[in-house]
Each structure stands twice: as structure tokens, then as C-alpha cells.
Amino acid sequence: MVFETFEVGTVPFNSDGWGPPDASDTSSTSVAAANLLPNVPLASFSRSEKLGRVADWTRALSNPSARPPTGSKSDPSAIFDFSAFAVDEGFGLASSGGNADEDAAFRLVDGKPPPRPKFGPKWRFNQYHNRNQLPQRRDEEVEAKKREAEKDRARRDRHYNMNRNNIHQQRREAAAFKSSVDIQPEWNMLEQIPFSSFSKLSFTVQEPEDLLLCGGLECYDRTYDRVTPKAERRLERFKNRSFKVTTSDDLVIRRLAKEDKATVFATDAILAALMCAPRSVYSWDLVIQRVGNKLFFDKRDGSPLDLLSVHETSQEPLPEGKDDINSAHSLGMEAAFINQNFAQQVLVKNGKREAFDEPIPNANEGEENASIAYRYRRWKLDDSMYLVARCELQSTVELNNQKSYLTLNALNEFDPKYSGVDWRQKLETQRGAVLANELKNNGNKLAKWTAQALLANADMMKIGFVSRVHPRDHFNHVILSVLGYKPKDFAGQINLNTNNMWGIVKSIVDLCMKLSEGKYVLVKDPSKPQVRIYEVPADAFENDYVEEPLPEDEQVQPPEENNTEGGGAETNESSSTNEAAEDKKPQGRA
């Protein structure tokens, strides 16, 4: 067998450093040149010098524009050819002679894979570029599902935005509320007080004194505490009459006024409207009568205070037409009907009633009255001023071997689409969410109920959740649940400050005590967070006084904001409110 010999080329010895010897060494130049491949750049280097690219494996030789003029696609030594890039990339090592520019021209080869596109497979967006590269395969079914889900999400977002735009448009139209009373041309506006001034007021009152307790109360039926949406109770109708006479018509208050027991007289509903005025949205009004040194806060016949507001503080608009069963007026009538019947149904029907000092004032003899008690209480506002208020209690119960007084009120659900929470599904498992939603939609009503319970010194306030049998049936209702709260604890939950409530009442009383004898009306502006005080004729709101509604363009318009600021808006003390009212009274009467 004949073996071919493999000849190893001559390797010159470099005693001065690494690599082949310098070209200046003539003895070994010819030997080194015989071992060098063509088109391979070579330069002397030491251990401290940086090495350039030996071979560029990343060059796209399939692109004719990027192919160097020397070498060809099939030439295996073309990957070592840097002659075309000697000037641009700094590899002209033969001509550089080891200049200092070699460090600046040094570049690293990026070995990272190209980034993937964020959406979809790569071959969909790069199908006409770099055909020699294989596509990155993915699960096509998963990608198709993702694309369908993205289309569905975009479609839902489009419909949602369209509906929200329509809601905003309706809300702007429905936001133009009407005033609770027509402002007549002969009325003279005296004061204009913004609600921003009420938040700074504070007044501390002493413990009130109980003057008289009238009426009779029946016991609360505790079985209603176990009512659930699955074990609901039908709301019944009762014929028992509940008297809601105004302050000046109350016979007991007239007697107390003659006995000079106080200077200011009101009811708990009127005081609660004043105390919670900053939370109100709808327009309401009060009639103020100054008789001698006495001050009476009354309500008109047919006043909004006789009804219960529904969805007042909600962001969703209600239908405007009065004939609609879901309009603000219709819901107010329905809520008052529900509240009156609920307060009578949750009582024990055994004929036993606890009677108090006197019967209900203004009640007709022989007529069956509802279970209600009037507690007349007196508060001291200052050394020479006392306030007497008639407060209501609806029931009594034995708790820990002690008699406790209750107030009974009912929230009503008319359509879950408006409230956003279905009581039948959430009341058992998420009562907190239901109550939080009601605080958002009916914050003013709940605050007034809490203020009335605090004024009456009730030990417990029972709140019922009453819903329609069907959203379009506003005659038949069912009781879904009944919850109980302590008034002081509930006031803390809804951020109702007692000192601020009395600060508002004290400022209004001080303002009205500086007015001369006559009749005035306090009106909450239908579109702005403020109240106004008008001087009205003495026969206003009487039976023989007929108001002719005026067109909006002929009604008296209030002055500009910068000219009429509310009294006491910049102070925390009620006395500063009085000083502002004293300065503005001559201007208002001019």
C-alpha cells in the first residue's frame, strides 16, 4: 500500500512576538507569503492590541449590491475578502500601518437573533423580504382565536363608546332641572349663599331638652330581620293616616310659641333639609315667617319635601316626562307610598300600642292613626335663642331589657338597569356593595334620614329594601331585606358631621333673625349648588294666592356670581355670616 505524504508548510519562527514575522524581515518574507491565503488581511499585533473580524459570516452574499467586486458567490474565500470594505469599516490594515484609528474603527459582531414582531407570525409581515429564510411556525389555531377575540373586543368597545356618548348627551339635556317654585317678578332677592360656604361652618350644641312626647307607638316585628330575597314579603297597603302638618299649623308648636318656650320653631324634616343642603341636587324650598321675635320654618302644600327623592345624586339621568313611571316626580310619589306602608307593615299586629303624654295633634277624633310619636325637643343656640323641633319616631322594641325607639324608612328599587346592581342577586352575599351603590345614587335621602334619627335621639334606624315585582309594575312591591344601623355609627360611615350640620342651621337662623317681620322663601337653585332667600308678599302660598307660571325668558334672573356672594362664605364662624348679611340687606332691599 502506498501512502501519500502530507507536507506541512514551513512555519517561520518569530522571536519578537506572536504571529508571523514582520514584512521587514526579508529572510522570512518569502516563506510567509507562500503560506498566506489570497485576500486575507494580515497585520502585526501584540497581546495588547484588539483583533478584528477574521471572517464575516453575516454578509448577505445573495444580494448582488452587497457582494464585493472581487470574489464570487461560489468562491469559498470570498468570506475572507475585506477589500471592498477596507475604507468604510477600517480593515485596510495594510495601509493603516497600525494607526491609532484602529480602536475607533473596531466593531463587535452582533450575534443576537433578530427581534420577533409583537403581533402575528413573522412570515405574515415579512413574506416579500428575505425569501431564503424559513418562516417561524406557530400554532395557527391559537393565532386565529386571538385575532377573533381582538375583533370582538374592538366591536364591544365601539358599541360601548357609542352608548356612552348617547348617555352623556341625554344627561346634558336632563340636567336642566326646574325650580321647585316659580319665582315671581314681585319677589325681591335678598341673599345668595353658595354651598361652598356651608362646608366651613361648625357649631356645637348642648344636649337637648325633651319638652313633650305625643302619639303612640307599636312594637317592631323582629321576624322582618330574617327576610331575604329568597323569602321575600309582599308589601301591603294600609289606610292608617300619617299626619305631616307644617310647623306653624302644629297645635303643640303654637302652644309652645305662646308660652315663649323658644325663638325658632321647625320640624325634623325641615331641619334635615337644611343640614344636608350641600348634598342636594334637586330644587327644594322652605317658607320662613318672621313674627315678632319668633321665627317659623314651614313648608308649602305640595312641597318637594313631602315626597322622597329617588336617584337624586346618581349620574344616570331619569326620564323627564311626568307621565313616565320612572320620572323623578313619579318615583318620588312611589317612594313616599312605599315608605308609609313599610313603616306600618313591619309592626306587631296585636292591637297593643304604647300611648304617651298627649295624642297626635291635628288628628280627627275616631280616625285610626298610624303608629307615630312626636318628640318635641329644645336646643340652646345661644344665651337668648332656643330652637324647638318636632321629631318623629315610628316604632319601639325591647333591646337588652331596655326600651329602644326606632325610625323606619325604605329604599326602593325600580329598575336594576338604572341602579346598576340587582338587589335580588346581591343583597344576600354583597350587602355592602348594595348599600354603597345606594349611597352613591341616594346620598342626600340617606343623609336626611340619618339627621332625622339623630334629632329624634332614636336608638336604631331600620332601613328596608323594597323592590317592584316587575320593573314596569309600579303598584306592586316586595320587601327583600331589612337592615338596622345605629344613627351615630351610620353618620360616621356616610361622613355626616354633626357640628357642620348645626353650623349650617345656626348660620341660616342668624341670617333670618336680622330680617324684618314678613314672609320669605329659601329656594335651592335648580342648576347651581347654592340657595337664595327671597322676600315674598304676605299672602304668598295661601289658598287665595294664585301663582301664574311665567315663561323662562320672563322670569327674574339672578345677578352675576361676582356681584352677589353668599353671606359668611369666607369664615368658619356663624357670626361672620351675620355681619355679611347685615351689610348686604340694604342692598337687597334697595
UniProtKB/TrEMBL annotation:
It is found in: Cytoplasm. Transmembrane segments: none annotated. Pfam families: eIF-3_zeta (PF05091). Signal peptide: none annotated. InterPro entries: eIF3d (IPR007783). The keyword Glycosyltransferase does not apply. Residues 130-154, 544-590 are annotated as: Disordered. Residues 304-318 are annotated as: RNA gate. Keywords: Cytoplasm, Initiation factor, Protein biosynthesis, RNA-binding. Residues 136-154, 581-590 have a biased composition (Basic and acidic residues). Residues 544-555 have a biased composition (Acidic residues). Belongs to the eIF-3 subunit D family. The RNA gate region regulates mRNA cap recognition to prevent promiscuous mRNA-binding before assembly of eif3d into the full eukaryotic translation initiation factor 3 (eIF-3) complex. mRNA cap-binding component of the eukaryotic translation initiation factor 3 (eIF-3) complex, which is involved in protein synthesis of a specialized repertoire of mRNAs and, together with other initiation factors, stimulates binding of mRNA and methionyl-tRNAi to the 40S ribosome. The eIF-3 complex specifically targets and initiates translation of a subset of mRNAs involved in cell proliferation. In the eIF-3 complex, eif3d specifically recognizes and binds the 7-methylguanosine cap of a subset of mRNAs. Component of the eukaryotic translation initiation factor 3 (eIF-3) complex. This is Eukaryotic translation initiation factor 3 subunit D. It comes from Brassica cretica (Mustard).
